[in-house]
Amino acid sequence: MRIPASQIPTITILLFSLLLSPVTLTAQTNLSDWSRLNAVALGSKLSVKLKDGKTVEGTLRSVSDSGLSLTVKNADRELRRDDVRTVHEISKKSVKKATLIGLGVGAGAGAILGIAGDASNDDGFETIDNAAAAAVTVLGAGVGALSGFLIGRSGKKRVLIYEAR
Predict the structure, then answer these.
(1) Per the domain annotation, does 127 fall within a domain?
(2) Which of 20, 44, 85, 87 is the most interior residue, by most CB within 10 Å?
(3) Domain range holding 101?
(4) N- to C-terminal Cα distance for the chain?
């Protein structure tokens, strides 16, 4: 079963659009609401930007109406609410998501290369050509998954929790 050459670009565009489209599933709440910090788990890593421009990174110890307490380099640090400009929660990026995206992109690229190489000649070896196209697809998927894993493992995600008005 061969895919007509005219459908390959359409299939490729649809595949990339599906894999790379950002899907927002959660509603955005008011970022200037200090009580949002109460929902953050104690021990979470936070990055707090102060109104004087300095940034403090540490793990959350406690939150009160007047401020928050962090552990910074094994020392406790109290930050007043009036001094805080923004608070971001820092977590690791999903390795699973990056690996799956890399797998899909690699398999798509491998399939395109395999089909392009297969379509270039009609020498009567269609079975061997199809097997080679499948092998290039699997190889591309493996390389893509490995690349996605390495990229995902090294990244950090910053989620804005609070922003002063």
Answers:
(1) yes
(2) 87
(3) 5-21+94-155
(4) 61
